[in-house]
Fold each of these.
Amino acid sequence: MPRSREQAFNEIVRRVRKECFGKGPERIHTVFVDNMAISVLQGNLTPTEKFISRTPEGAEMVRLARTSMIQELYKRKVPEGLEEVAGSKFLYLFSDFKVEEDMGVSVFIFERSIPKEPLPDGFVCGKQANQAQESAE
């Protein structure tokens, strides 16, 4: 059975956040609307971030770090597989984070509408499984 685009997209988002912050979101819900992927991410904060965010100043520092760092990361390099899953060139990322709720929202903007159909069988992080196998031989 083909994987959904949303599931594959969420896996990429989770991987990138884990690499950047040391912890990926516990739950991600993504919807595709025209040329946008809108993701709600819950359960993001590390124990250290939770400790820092106990004061208003600390919470603002965590919010700024969470939003600025991820935007800068996507600006420097598009994560592997993101454009293949979306079927379009990545253009912009808008994001915000509500520290008190441990919830973030990211809006990914692509050049063209994101296809509705599921990914083809054997789709592996931006490559067809047989292509990956051929390069391994």
Amino acid sequence: MTGFEALVAIIAIISGCMVPISIVGGAYYYKLQKDKLRLGGRIPPEDKKFLTEVKTEVKRLNARMENLEYIVTNIDENLLPPGTSDATESTRKQLEQMTKRLDEQS
């Protein structure tokens, strides 16, 4: 067998294998296009309902998150554990002393 005959045999084998693959691929593409036409670019009602439920859940969770952020950022010092307010007061006094020293130096 010459080189040309071997090449023809290889091309014949590859072509023979590609025919079934292209048939399967073409059938799958046809099915996808048919589904696109059937839907007409619309969202099915069950998916639309699910999306609206998810949107409302996200809005509700965002509102809860905002409430939690408000609570965390506006903690009343009376609600803190004992001893914490003393530490806060001492830190406040130290800060006042440091600012007085800085004001005196300048």
Amino acid sequence: METNSYVEFCTRFYEGLYHHRRNDLSVIQILSNLYALQGDQKNSFKMDRRHVRLEPLNPIAHYNLACDLSLQGKETEAVESLETAVALGYNDLQWIYDDIDLDPIRKNKKFKALLADRFLKTSPK
């Protein structure tokens, strides 16, 4: 089976599961990733937003939502979601630097301030 066909098959399969299990976080996360693989930002965003609603204290859910918002050009909301992710414990600075989904907000002053404030402070001696 070709890769695209396999991803499309998996997407249809998980959409069927989602129809019956709308609150299943595993199904929501997998669907979000499958949609993102196919460049379907609209549906990936819907799944990530649902994940945040179901699990509002999950830092990774907020991080993924920040990526969706960044790709949509919604800078303010993206930075706010990233701030929430960091406040909830998201601390993978290297991934924040490497993640191309955040490229649209890298020049944002609040984005730069967040990184400087949370990650780039030197510890007192």
Amino acid sequence: MAASYIIEQFKNLNAPENMILTQHSRKRFSERGIKIADIINAISSGEIIEQYPEDFPVPSCLILGSSGSKKLHIVASIKDNMIWLITAYIPDDGLWDESFRIRKKRSEDSQSDGKEES
């Protein structure tokens, strides 16, 4: 059975020593100017807006939060009482509604696999 997360699970672990960054996430954070402090702020203020129960090797979710005036989407999972940070990005207002919670409808020929950016 696939797991679902609640934001409190992430908030309870929300500290740098409880986070694992993949090589991919380190690269993306650097490219996008996202710092660990931004991730911590976004999780603290965040909410889970999508669940990805079929992700492998563990289920993940999409968190919407903010750091200062910056909105962030964070794809993360929890394994062994650690937050695994998969990626984070500033959501594109062309792909999301004004709240950045709901994806805008896209035409059939431009549909992707769901996740906006990796």
